[in-house]
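Incident log, structure service

09:12 report received: a user says their structure output differs between two submissions of the same chain.
09:20 pulled the input from the user's history:
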Amino acid sequence: MQSTTIETTPPELIAALQAAQHVVVFTGAGVSAESGIPTFRDALTGLWGRFDAQALATPEAFRRDPDLVWGWYEWRRMQLLRALPNPAHLAIAELAQHVPRLTVVTQNVDDLHERAGSADVLHLHGSLHQPRCFDCGRPHVLPPAPPDEPEGGRRLSPPRCRQCGGPVRPGVVWFGESLPEDILAAAFAAAQACDLLFAIGTSALVYPAAQIPLLALHAGARVAQVNPTATALDDECTWSLRGAAGAVMPKLLQAAFLAA
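09:34 re-ran on a clean worker, output below:
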């Protein structure tokens, strides 16, 4: 493993990116945090401060108090709608213009990659913008934003399914639920088929998603980690670039493809 910093981006990584036929970008909460979105493990603030986020993110919590859980997730969704893609999202989207094939895999439940211009993003943990019926699973379309943002800590009744009348739930993967099999299979296949993978803003601790960089390595690909702090991937990856994704990724794109 070669550990480096943003100031000393290794020429070997630049050459690997220039030569790559299939690049996978695997992003975690750190990328969205640079757009001002708190990570899931951050302490809740304001009126939500008396709640435990992990205790709200279960099917059992929704059955017990659907108004509380839906109100919290709508409050989160409104936060996401106010956020903007940051330079890391934009650089990742632009990367698709310079490599033959790019696959974006994310653990994040926002749509910042899509709003930056990335297509066909694989959302391992679902999306707050794709709710579905709790009972029958039918997708439900929400308006872009309610007239009034739900106040932090306020209960809000979920809409009802137009097919069966059941309550609509957030379209995210809750604790105790499996990741969507088709999305996970596509992510694993991409990792095993790529020649270069970027692991950006992820702790590399949450399985099965944390297997993705390891699958790439075991298949012979090289892995570049971008993170401001040490992670479980430090001893495994080919290169580890210390720094914010919004600084590192534009610099790398510039060096590989845009320099005069």
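09:41 both user submissions now match this output. Likely a transient worker issue. Closing.
09:42 reviewer note: The domain at 38-82+132-169 is CATH 3.30.1600.10 (SIR2/SIRT2 'Small Domain'). Residues 43-48 have pLDDT under 50 and may be disordered.
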